[in-house]
């Protein structure tokens, strides 16, 4: 009998990271600029290890190899998602991700469509979300050659609780002062277009991938920052956030109780505020703010209790 699976975080030190994952989630994290915590991953660049129950110490891949359909359901043979927490103490590079066809051809990986949920934000926080409407491929190439990329970028204001959908081909960058949850395809392919002319400790600039980025940019993209609208039920509120071919995400604010079941498809929950517990088969599993856990596809009814806000992801 399987159960709710919790995982050890996989931390990534990157030049733009900080220490907010430590402070906000009361965690012990490695020294340095910790930018990302991979919370649920079956990717070779950061494999999740189960931290609870009989399967403690086992990798997610090993569990899927052993249990297959019991974990994932009938739709998938491999885990299709990657869930992260992101601390942008400084701004990220301006970047774009390819779609599946391009990524499989040139990178032997899946493409990357993703979404962000704003957990915390400084006052007047911003994101780069696409290019200005008048920017064509030819104008953008000219701007790159003249080092005027910043003049082409579309900036949007964001605040706590906002949702941003980033389909493949979208030029984007997280700016400083943001703490995000990211849900994406299981991919680690990023094409950097511009890195704000910054250098590392050795005076070197990070690699850019201009040619590939220009191949995959959607110059006709138009998107809006989403403000989820909640419906109230007995014990909880729920808002539909994102529905796309790769994942469906709802935001659930539990103020007393939320009951659900997997019905043959796995679910991933990410706690973005508060704390609580998940009850399954007579056993209680503590949920701390920042925790992500996977409910295997075979599980029947479970209940989440407490005062806690979660992202519920289905694939």
TrEMBL record:
This is Phosphohexomutase. Pfam families: MPI_cupin_dom, PMI_typeI_cat. One of its GO terms (biological process) is carbohydrate metabolic process. Binds 1 zinc ion per subunit. It comes from the Bacteria. InterPro entries: Carb_Metab_Reg_Kinase/Isom, Man6P_isomerase_Firm_short, MPI_cupin_dom, PMI_typeI_cat, RmlC-like_jellyroll, RmlC_Cupin_sf. SUPFAM superfamilies: RmlC-like cupins. CDD domains: cupin_PMI_type_I_N_bac. The active site is at residue 192. Keywords: Isomerase, Metal-binding, Zinc. The gene is gmuF. Residues 7-109 form the Phosphomannose isomerase type I catalytic domain. Zn(2+) binds at residues 97, 114, 172. Residues 240-311 form the Mannose-6-phosphate isomerase cupin domain. One of its GO terms (molecular function) is mannose-6-phosphate isomerase activity. Its cofactor is Zn(2+).
């Amino acid at each position: 009998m399987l159960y709710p699976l919790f995982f050890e975080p996989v931390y990534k030190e990157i030049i733009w990271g900080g220490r907010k994952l430590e402070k906000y989630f009361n965690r012990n994290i490695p020294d340095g600029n910790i930018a990302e915590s991979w919370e649920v991953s079956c990717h070779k660049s950061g494999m999740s290890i189960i931290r609870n129950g009989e399967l403690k110490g086992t990798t997610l891949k090993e569990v899927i190899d052993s249990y297959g359909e019991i974990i994932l359901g009938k739709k998938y043979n491999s885990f299709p998602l990657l869930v992260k927490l992101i601390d942008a103490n400084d701004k990220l590079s301006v970047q774009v991700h390819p779609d599946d066809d391009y990524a499989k051809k040139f990178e032997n990986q899946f493409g990357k469509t993703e979404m962000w949920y704003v957990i915390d934000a400084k006052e007047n926080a911003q994101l780069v979300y696409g290019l200005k409407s008048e920017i064509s491929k030819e104008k953008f190439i000219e701007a790159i050659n003249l080092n005027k990329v910043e003049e082409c970028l579309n900036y949007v204001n964001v605040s706590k609780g906002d949702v941003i959908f980033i389909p493949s081909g979208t030029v984007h960058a997280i700016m400083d002062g943001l703490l995000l949850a990211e849900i994406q395809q299981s991919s680690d392919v990023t094409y950097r277009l511009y890195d704000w002319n910054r250098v590392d400790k050795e005076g070197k600039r990070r690699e850019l991938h201009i040619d590939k980025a220009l191949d995959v940019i959607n110059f006709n993209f138009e998107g809006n920052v989403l403000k989820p609208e909640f419906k109230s039920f007995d014990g909880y509120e729920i808002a539909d956030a994102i529905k796309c071919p790769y994942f469906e995400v709802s935001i659930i604010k539990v103020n007393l109780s939320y009951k659900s079941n997997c019905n043959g498809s796995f679910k991933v929950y990410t706690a973005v505020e508060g704390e609580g517990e998940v009850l399954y088969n007579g056993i209680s599993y503590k949920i701390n703010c920042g925790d992500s856990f996977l409910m295997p596809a075979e599980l029947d009814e479970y209940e989440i209790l407490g005062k806690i806000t979660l992202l519920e992801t289905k694939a």
